[in-house]
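4.2 Preliminary Data

To establish feasibility before requesting continued support, the project team ran the inverse folding procedure on a target of 454 residues. The structure was first converted into the token representation described in Section 3, and no sequence information of any kind was made available to the design step. The complete token record follows.
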């Protein structure tokens, strides 16, 4: 448990010394296909605090154009004919500064919708992806489905989805990112793109690599490509040779950002990496702990800016580093969870130097049970917000750690992701997708209410 002095330090840093940016256009990722009860904690810092979400290793492909007319992936929807050109190969919160215009209404949400990832383009508009319907009785041979809310979880509607299954080794998708409600990507481990709000999804060639994460900001999308051999839903494990890619958001022209961030690897073979974007600057945490940064508006190579104070560790099943997860509050102010030591570190100089900020709460949990931290966010009401395998923990400004109020039955396995879309509004995703809910807060993370995706 952190001391009052620790609270004063982190409150001062989060509130007195930082002038948070207005969230740039982007995506609010919801992370994990599923959270596992493990003693390794992983953290995701919300861009609701200013700029970016943390993501884990990404694998992104060079593009091979295909002409595809995907069928609607919704139970009860009439499939369209899918035509594939066989000559070719196959998020956090960054809400926009302006609220996008309402998009056309979709179809009813298929039954049994189990969201595995969420992306927000405003405090009201979010997209989720997951498995829905009943296997063998979906609109196509696949049950992958997409749904959208345009009223902060009040109602949901069904949309078309990529014609592929759940993550399984080198195939399927389980995560989703949208930049602006129009340009979006479904991934993990395959990559699919839409540039019409999800009406059509096109598969993008990955030349044998796996896509673990995609992040967007401004008018570009970024990702990391890696070679992985993990099987089943653990598609992002056992990865080497990480490369940072980028593309204009309106096109599918993925290209490497230079030699310095190409074929990165750890010192002991398999590794992991993390990608963080702010409104002006991006960060790549390499498997060996080196931090690279560069402009998110240009295509110049990124350069090494420092090294994190702990080992990065191997990838978790969803690609997140096991021992060090990076996030940003502003382009220069970074935050890092070193899970082995149980401490959160901060940097005010783009990662050149780091200071110990505050310890993670409830390391041993009630009755000796280990509490696993899965994500972290920030707001004025609760300077730090943690998603855990037990629930949501908040650290009010000047106070001590306590459980957030949940207006409903807490998910059995806690939350895999929590983040803020504005200073007061935020979303959380249960670790167990069978809960079929997304949770919302409107008071800065102090209380949360579930919304059934139906």
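Position-by-position output of the design step:
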């Amino acid at each position: 448990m952190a001391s009052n002095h620790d609270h004063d330090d982190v409150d001062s840093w989060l509130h007195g010394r930082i002038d948070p940016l207005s969230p740039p256009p982007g995506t609010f990722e919801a992370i994990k296909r599923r959270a596992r009860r493990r003693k390794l904690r992983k953290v995701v810092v919300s861009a609701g605090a200013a700029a970016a979400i943390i993501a884990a290793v990404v694998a992104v492909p060079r593009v091979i154009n295909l002409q595809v007319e995907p069928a609607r992936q919704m139970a009860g929807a009439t499939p369209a004919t899918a035509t594939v050109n066989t000559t070719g190969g196959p998020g956090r919160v960054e809400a926009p500064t302006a609220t996008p215009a309402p998009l056309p209404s979709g179809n009813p949400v298929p039954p049994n919708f189990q969201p595995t990832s969420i992306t927000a383009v405003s405090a009201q508009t979010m997209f989720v992806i997951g498995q829905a319907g009943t296997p063998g009785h979906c609109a196509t041979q696949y049950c992958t489905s997409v749904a959208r809310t345009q009223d902060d979880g009040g109602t949901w509607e069904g949309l078309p989805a990529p014609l592929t299954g759940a993550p399984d080794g080198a195939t399927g998708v389980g995560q989703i990112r949208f930049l602006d409600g129009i340009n979006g990507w479904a991934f993990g481990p395959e990559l699919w793109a839409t540039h019409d709000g999800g009406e059509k999804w096109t598969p993008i060639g990955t030349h044998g690599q796996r896509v673990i994460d995609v992040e967007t900001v401004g008018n570009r999308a970024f990702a990391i490509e890696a070679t992985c051999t993990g099987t089943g839903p653990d598609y992002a494990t056992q990865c080497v040779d990480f490369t940072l890619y980028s593309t204009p958001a309106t096109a599918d022209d993925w290209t490497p950002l230079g030699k310095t961030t190409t074929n990165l690897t750890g010192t002991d073979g398999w590794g992991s990496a993390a990608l963080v974007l702010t409104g002006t600057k991006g960060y790549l945490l390499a498997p060996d702990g080196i931090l690279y940064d560069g402009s998110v508006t240009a295509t110049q190579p990124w350069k090494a800016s420092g090294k994190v104070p702990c080992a990065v560790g191997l990838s978790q099943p969803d690609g997140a580093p096991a021992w060090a997860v990076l996030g940003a509050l502003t382009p220069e102010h970074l935050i890092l969870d070193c899970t082995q030591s149980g401490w959160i570190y901060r940097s005010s100089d783009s990662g050149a130097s780091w200071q110990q900020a505050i310890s993670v709460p409830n390391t041993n949990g009630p009755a000796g049970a280990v509490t696993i931290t899965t994500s972290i966010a920030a707001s004025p009401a609760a300077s730090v917000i943690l998603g855990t395998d037990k629930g949501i923990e908040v650290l009010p400004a000047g106070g001590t750690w306590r459980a957030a109020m949940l207006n409903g039955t807490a998910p059995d396995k806690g939350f895999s992701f929590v983040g803020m879309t504005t200073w007061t509004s935020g979303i959380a995703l249960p670790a167990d997708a069978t809960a079929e809910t997304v949770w919302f807060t409107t008071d800065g993370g102090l209380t949360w209410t579930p919304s059934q995706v139906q």
